[in-house]
């Protein structure tokens, strides 16, 4: 039986990325064997839910703790008990992120001569937003940022994820009660995964918004481009990141997860293509793309413009240097996957509305 020092606290284990990671980890014999040395403790809303029961089947022996991201005392307590914490739940929920960091720092104080506790956090590539407000940017001015030169302080404080990431980066830099922290920045994740929650949030968020407001819209003209990566490649990327982190043979770094060779997602085209499917199924009267009216964009404030109307393009140089390749992204590019995912969204949307 694992000792308390070998607890792995997992937030978001039943989600799109979290459940894919578990499936990918099971396929890697070395990582699976290593993770089996840990008692895995997962925070779940309802231990009796269908997803929670599926989680018990996916990872036998996992311990389910009832709670949400607002249960800060539980999060702090479990982080304090854990040698490893993985947050795949919410990139921007600052109170829970601070609770994780506080718990890990207390663990470090409890075991001053032991190994530093490790925190792996999923952020997002929108941190790179150039805030172009959906306008066309010439190719010579578009920047593909490498994670080897990435510095959080180089980007505006108002960019998505900046506040939570500052908490994590600051904690990793502290000498007193030190912790290890790795932030991971995926591009737009697409594709049908192998996990408990197989569908990407992209269509659920945008498709629902299009139907709700009756417009397949964008912030501004929607000419901004975003890096993409298939969910199964995200799974193998996290396998690589975990193995490197647990072996502790290389310096902890931040990682981008993208395919810089793949055709990026351009929001205008995405809205146009999605509108065709929604219109064909009677969910959208007008199949034409239009910029969202202010009545829509004002609901999201400047965050919406930064997150949804800027270019954010990244290169996964750290992972590529370690041999990782985005194989599935090459097999099924975003624009080929989109019609399939749009049909799945329609089916799910209609079933939930029935």
The gist of it:
This protein is an alpha/beta fold and 354 residues long.
Question: If you had to describe this structure to a student in words, what would you say it looks like?
Answer:
- The protein is an alpha/beta fold.
- Helix content is 43%, strand content 16%.
- It contains 14 helices and 15 strands.
- The chain has helices at residues 16-27, 29-35, 50-58, 72-81, 94-110, 162-173, 201-213, 231-247, 267-280, 294-297, 301-308, 317-321, 327-331, 334-353, and strands spanning 7-11, 39-44, 63-66, 82-87, 118-122, 144-146, 180-186, 188-190, 216-218, 225-226, 228-230, 255-257, 265-266, 289-291, 313-315.
- A seven-stranded parallel beta sheet has the order 3-2-1-4-5-7-12, with helices on both faces.
- Helix 5 links the parallel strand 4 and strand 5 (118-122).
- Helix 7 (201-213) packs across helix 9.
- The protein is globular and about 65 Å long.
- It starts with 6 loop residues before the first strand and ends with a helix.
- The model is unreliable at 1-5 (pLDDT under 50).
SSE blueprint and pairings:
Layout: E1 7-11, H1 16-27, H2 29-35, E2 39-44, H3 50-58, E3 63-66, H4 72-81, E4 82-87, H5 94-110, E5 118-122, E6 144-146, H6 162-173, E7 180-186, E8 188-190, H7 201-213, E9 216-218, E10 225-226, E11 228-230, H8 231-247, E12 255-257, E13 265-266, H9 267-280, E14 289-291, H10 294-297, H11 301-308, E15 313-315, H12 317-321, H13 327-331, H14 334-353
Parallel strand pairs: 1-2, 1-4, 2-3, 4-5, 5-7, 6-15, 7-12, 8-11, 9-14
Antiparallel strand pairs: 10-13
């Amino acid at each position: 039986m694992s000792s308390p020092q070998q607890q792995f606290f997992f937030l978001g284990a039943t989600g799109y990325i979290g459940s894919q990671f578990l499936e990918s980890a099971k396929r890697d014999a070395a990582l699976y064997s290593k993770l089996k040395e840990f008692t895995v403790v997962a925070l779940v809303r309802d231990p009796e839910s269908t997803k929670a029961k599926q989680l018990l089947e996916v990872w036998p022996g996992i311990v389910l703790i009832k709670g949400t991201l607002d249960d800060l005392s539980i999060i702090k307590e479990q982080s304090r008990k854990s040698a490893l914490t993985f947050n795949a739940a919410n990139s921007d929920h600052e109170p829970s992120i601070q609770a994780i960091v506080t718990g890990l720092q207390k663990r470090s104080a409890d075991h001053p001569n032991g190994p530093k506790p490790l925190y792996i956090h999923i952020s997002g590539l929108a941190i790179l937003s150039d805030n172009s407000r959906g306008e066309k940017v010439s190719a010579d001015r578009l920047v593909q940022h490498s994670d080897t030169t990435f510095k959080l302080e180089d980007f505006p404080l108002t960019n998505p994820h900046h506040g939570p990431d500052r908490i994590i980066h600051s904690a990793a830099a502290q000498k007193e009660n030190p912790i290890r922290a790795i932030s991971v920045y995926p591009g737009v994740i697409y594709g049908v995964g192998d996990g408990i929650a197989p569908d990407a949030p992209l269509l659920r968020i945008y498709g629902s918004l299009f139907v709700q407001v009756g417009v397949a819209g964008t912030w501004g003209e929607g000419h901004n481009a975003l890096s993409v990566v298939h969910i199964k490649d995200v799974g193998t990327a996290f396998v690589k990141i975990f193995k490197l982190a647990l072996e502790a043979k290389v310096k902890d770094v931040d990682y981008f997860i993208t395919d810089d060779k793949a055709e990026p997602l351009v929001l205008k085209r995405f809205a146009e293509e999605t509108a065709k499917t929604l219109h064909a199924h009677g969910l959208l009267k007008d199949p034409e793309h239009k910029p969202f009216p202010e009545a829509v964009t004002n609901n999201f404030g400047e965050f919406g413009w930064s997150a949804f109307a800027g270019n954010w393009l990244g290169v996964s140089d750290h992972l590529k240097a370690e041999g990782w390749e985005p194989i599935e992204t090459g097999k099924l590019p975003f624009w080929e996957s989109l019609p399939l995912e749009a049909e799945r969204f329609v089916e799910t949307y209609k079933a939930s509305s029935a």
